[in-house]
Write a structure and sequence with these properties.
By secondary structure, the chain is mostly beta strands. Helix content is about 0%, strand content about 50%.
Amino acid sequence: MSNLSITEYQYAGIADNQTALQAGLEPAVTRQNVTFTTTPAVQSSAFNASTKLIRIVSDADARVAVGSNPTAVVTTDTLIVAGNAEYFAVVPGHKISVIEVL
């Protein structure tokens, strides 16, 4: 089984020159972990009502989809490479679905 780590943020970080950074402003709103395999795709819990940005890291190559009731598809959805952090702006209350790619 593989693991997707999700960190939820309300705001992106801001640099001294007021430029938005590709980083969440700590402390995080909440964190969750989703265990997944090659089938079937699984969903996270709904994002917190104040979550607008997520950071995800997977310990295996995977495909992800975000939405109100998403189902990640191994052939077409967003590829996440194991060990790399990715950031996504999201809608509060939505979920992320993940499935492992072999």
